[in-house]
Amino acid sequence: MNDTSARRGRLWVIGAIVALVALAGAVVGHAVLRDGGVEEAGAPVRVPPKALGVVGAPYSAPWPVWGFTHTDRSADVGPASEVAARSIAARPLVQNQHIMGWGADNPEPAPGRYDWAALDRRMEYIRRTGGVPVITLCCAPDWMKGGRPGDTDWSRLEFAPRPRHYADFARLSAAVARRYPYVRHFAVWNELKGFYDPQRVRWDHEGYTRMYNLVYDAVKAVNPANEVGGPYVPMYSHVGGQGSALRGPWGSVDQIALDAVEYWLANSRGADFVSVDGPTASDDRDVYPDAVTALDKFVAINRWLRSKTSLPIWWNEYYIEPDTDPWSERRRAAMHVASLIDQARTGVSTVLYWNRIPKDGDRTCEGCLWVTTSVPDGGAPGRMLGVLQEFARWFPAGTRMIDVRPSSAKVRVLAQPRMTVAVNVSDDLLETYVGDRRVRLDPYEVRWMDRTS
């Protein structure tokens, strides 16, 4: 655009450019508001076919890319457990489980005395529903954190092991890997819990990395094919303050998070993936300046990570909803679709949805993957389970993405040779083009479009 403007007086150049644009069919319309409040975007958006890379690289099928984490009350218990199981099994997803907490009891209440019952039940449910299993090696038994052997104080769940017990935690991690030999992916710890250093006002990334290295060696010793990653850093951000090396209209990622990732990358014994988590919301201004713009925070983080490492990128948790403006299920699904589109297009290998805890008797459970299984008529799938499963169906690892563009900035698109998904991220009724196909999208509508018909 700038080059063309600089040569505005050379009409023959402009004519040549116009001819080339017309030949390529790259015509982009401008949005206009018609009578009746329907926003119409003017013309088809045709671009020369080109590949955008593949989803989930460097993984390939059958890695689903998309999945979820089981939390305190999951679908493995209750009279409607089998109802939920049928829905979950309909399209296999990555399923993640922690070794202590979030549905699992203390696995080693005293040194050498193991209690696997709750974790066994949860892992068996993952297998029975066809899940691709991931284990998060967190949290640690109380005796590793200064408590008495045999005691479990759940208020201290998020304390880190004391340094003298890092090796004990590594041995426990190896015991987990031996007990579930079919699991190949292990994330070490969760959000650096217990590793914050208040004196230095930053993460104790040195301590975490020392523990990580011991765990890495122990899990690899069980089976060299096991894949181990970290550091599972929470990528919090602020709008105010001095900012950091990674910033945008949504604010700036806390520098201590960036420092922790960089230290771990430089000093870890080895890694098979790099994991992070975080919200689009800032700590001081919630989602800023709006929920759609705030999605770009994840895009910026992915690009920053890719500039630092070639390891597969994992989002072990992600959150996009504002604290102050509860969303409808329709809007929630649409915004998550938009976020997953961004994750696919920026080269993420794994995305895990942190499932909400269904409350007993709650037959709606907004944001839950399924309705509570604690009642006989429960277990029905939630809208978000459908979102994840559709992405796993059409955009698993290895899927070739193609360049299909919307004519409205309020629409986000992801396409492969056989299917396109488009989502309206606004509360406007739109008549727009997705590539050369004219579509009418209701507010926060998600549309899956067969490209072969």
UniProtKB/TrEMBL annotation:
Keyword Transcription belongs to the record: no
InterPro entries xref list: GH, Glycosyl_Hydrolase_39
Gene3D superfamilies: Glycosidases (3.20.20.80)
Residue ranges crossing the lipid bilayer per the database entry: 12-33
Swiss-Prot/TrEMBL keywords: Hydrolase, Membrane, Transmembrane, Transmembrane helix
Keyword Transmembrane: yes
MF terms (GO), sorted A to Z: hydrolase activity, hydrolyzing O-glycosyl compounds
Designated name of the protein: Glycosyl hydrolase family 39
Species of provenance: Thermomonospora umbrina
